[in-house]
Amino acid sequence: MSAKLRIIPLGGLGEIGKNMTAIEYEDEIIIIDVGIMFPENDMLGIDYIIPDFEYLLDKLDKVKAVLFTHGHEDHVGAVSHLMKHVKAPIYATPLTAGFIQVKLQRAGLHKDIRLNVIQAGDVFDVGSFTIEPFHMAHSIPDCVGFGITTPVGLIVHSGDYKFDHTPIDGWPPDFAKLAEFSQRGVLCLMADSTNAERDGWTPTEVSVSAAFEEVFGDAKGRIIVASFASHISRIQQVANATYRHGRKLAITGRSMRDNVKMATDLGYLDVPNDLIIELEQAKKMPPSKVTIMATGSQGEPTSVMGRLAYGRDHRLSVEPGDTIILSAHTIPGNEETVTRIINRLFQRGALVIYEAMTHVHVSGHASREEMKLLINLVRPKFFLPVHGELRHLTQHGRLAEELGIPHQNIAVVENGTIIELTADSLEVGQRIPGGYIYVDGDSVGDIGRKVLRDRERLAESGYFVASISMGKNGKLQGKPDYVTRGIVNFEADFYNGLTENIETMLDRHGQKPKDHLKQIMEETISRFIYSSTGKRPMVSAILQ
Amino acid sequence: MSAKLRIIPLGGLGEIGKNMTAIEYEDEIIIIDVGIMFPENDMLGIDYIIPDFEYLLDKLDKVKAVLFTHGHEDHVGAVSHLMKHVKAPIYATPLTAGFIQVKLQRAGLHKDIRLNVIQAGDVFDVGSFTIEPFHMAHSIPDCVGFGITTPVGLIVHSGDYKFDHTPIDGWPPDFAKLAEFSQRGVLCLMADSTNAERDGWTPTEVSVSAAFEEVFGDAKGRIIVASFASHISRIQQVANATYRHGRKLAITGRSMRDNVKMATDLGYLDVPNDLIIELEQAKKMPPSKVTIMATGSQGEPTSVMGRLAYGRDHRLSVEPGDTIILSAHTIPGNEETVTRIINRLFQRGALVIYEAMTHVHVSGHASREEMKLLINLVRPKFFLPVHGELRHLTQHGRLAEELGIPHQNIAVVENGTIIELTADSLEVGQRIPGGYIYVDGDSVGDIGRKVLRDRERLAESGYFVASISMGKNGKLQGKPDYVTRGIVNFEADFYNGLTENIETMLDRHGQKPKDHLKQIMEETISRFIYSSTGKRPMVSAILQ
């Protein structure tokens, strides 16, 4: 009996197979992407989340290659966390390699890791795998999917994609390669499910240029555009519109400036030499001659747009007459912060242009008609929807079934589930333990669910600590010290009442063992607080 | 010079003129609606928010009437909070009065307050105002807007509305009345702006019936429908589909059962006698014969749907083969919890039907084409967009301008802004102080921004309290006691290091005045924690 190929999407409960995937055959493993997840609203105090790769830790020498599909944070952001452990070579296209290089350098890993720059259309071997990166269109240039010829058959991984016939970089997806894979016979297709709930065909990036054209044509004053720092295609479009309308472009925010420099150096941004000016220079020019690009399209309060909305930027302020374009999709969970920013910017007299009103943004992911085309182009035997939450994968799976792929040949699974493939079988195997690894300040992985639950409770009702001195006789000595935050401000009456309660309690129970007494004390305090506020803060008693 | 009419939308920074509005002329005030707001994600621990009516507190005897447009929580939910202070009569249509009556009873206020039941089409006087409620369609029956003839002219308030020609209760909006107002001449129109970013015309409620018909036709097992407890029209539609498909209907959740009973008694729900059965009975029937209605369409973890998704309901569980319909719009800010519920229900093998995939919900608010019709039907001199955030009001104002209302006759203002009207002028006056009143447990209004900021910091990084005994010589006595939650779990090494730090600090500063010493102590502890975790929890020192 020949060995099975194992495909394992890694990560927590969020998007599945998005941030990191392992493909394993006997003693060889290749990894696709190593990105970060953004915390949800109730993951309090968490900076970001990295995929749980504990599964790999006792197999590190089996890892033969780490492949990347494109340069967005959710695909490359955790590269340094992995490459501290894994010494295998990295393979990425030039722009993606540029993003990765910066991260490796910051982590001091750039000397240890071999970073191979590949091109769509290359063919190379890694152990018993043959890897064929092929060009796909998305919202960043230089995206690839991968054809991976394995001992059990050909696997095709779409990467993040949309079938954009007129992408900004003029390089449409490689339909011919997909058709060629199909002729060879594809064992399994892994495909982006992000927009599986969206009918039709995602509009081309070029349609955004038309919207910009209209907004730039109408604008009398300054134009300020917010987008992602890594959204190179959008930056190109803003530069084009700025140039056509005789304006100059100032770029604020370090990450965006760095990315613009790198992408220009690598030839992925085509911007006339004198188009880009310094912000200080822009401030001296007539408003009608100026475009400013900034980060903060998600309403982050510390971003440039966040500071502008709240009037807290010391270099720039929003003036009546400004036109502000939010050219990015609101990431689920950020709706409230974005909507506040929009309200605040209107309040300052700016005209705010955003996705709901004008097409100043289009999705970078395929919609349902494109998904159908991919499946029918590739005609795989087995289908593994990835990149999306369970709801999106489920809808993508149902769509594949409508196209004739048998139900039992489709695997909708969660992260950590091992998919086992042979030339003629797909089996959903066990689920390996694992979940989120939270990054919080300097701590990677030390924060668990318990700490988050504590934070939730603190956020809900605050805390109350009483430090109590007792005499040998078990009676209260002096007055207790109270420390409390995050509850209502208590009056003197409250504290007097509480101290009396504690005194009475100690008269009855003061001689009990300290552990037990501490517990009774905390219950006494909790009850007293609840009866006067209806709230249950975290209560601790220190007995001395 | 004759007096001016003042219109004052009351509330915080959320939706404007949504929850409560005061209309004042000389020594008479009438109030429209007294609803609650739902807290945003960063209003930690807050149950709900009531409008700030401090403006009224020294004018309580001027309030002559409290009018209600309809029975949703964001329009009636804070009635008891106001009616503790205001002894004026309430005016509401029968169903709305039913909702209000329950609230007054719970607050023990029902004997003190006169609740006048009115009908659309009535005309009555309140002091120098003549009030004419007129029928509007929304997602709950018995909605009205108000024509208010004031000494300076006729004000028309739309209430929440959509121009639904085929509402579930068969009672379309009163177009004729609006046209008649127009003939009399309307000084000012106040109109619902909720969907000012949505093009076209909101689909009729009846289109949901068609979607239900399809889903009910396909379902082989149980059908579970989640919606709002107050969504009487939707409950009617579910009952109709249940009846047509030979199923029986069980209703879970106390609030929904209470509402069904009240609406049936008042004749607003038309349900065959034997259609509704008990849940226990439903559980014994074949799945294909059962529909269950539940609350929890917003993914609230303690609601029936929340408990079902997480397998924590002791009476009911989701089984493979169940069809679950989420028939409600996700309120902004709830996207994450709703999406988790959907993922969890798919995980349990149910087929989940939701707004993104099938039209099992339509909005209850007018879209842009309806807004245009309202403005052109009423043809007001002045226009005051209300019911929406500043972004929606701004878009609604721009739309009115496109229809020919002069820019200076449109007032886009925030809550607390006084609008002054005469027969031929509209002025935006001062903004009265005020904002959110947070309700948190038993506390109404005691929680301010400071407590919320503390909770935010606690949620972000937890707290750390050190209780330290010092001798007369200012040296450390014994070992400090530490209490901490919401940070990483510290090892013994950490505590030993911290105690050493405190000892060294006391050797140098132990003789300083206690206040100053406490401050130095807290800084010492903060620095030590930051250097070992990169986090800044709230630190307190108790010196004894």
What's the quick description here?
With 544 residues, chain A is α/β, with parallel strands linked by helices.
Tell me what the structure shows.
By secondary structure, chain A is α/β, with parallel strands linked by helices. Helices cover 32% and strands 23% of the residues of chain A. Chain A is built from 16 helices and 26 strands. In chain A, the strands form 5 sheets. An 8-stranded mixed beta sheet of chain A has the order 7-6-5-3-2-1-20-21. Chain A has a 6-stranded mixed beta sheet with strand order 8-9-10-11-12-19. A 6-stranded parallel beta sheet of chain A has the order 15-14-16-13-17-18, sandwiched between helices. The longest helix of chain A is centred in the last third of the chain and has 20 residues, at 514-533. The mean pLDDT of chain A is 91. Chains A and B meet through helix 11, helix 13, helix 14, strand 24 and strand 25 of A and helix 11, helix 13, helix 14, strand 24 and strand 25 of B.
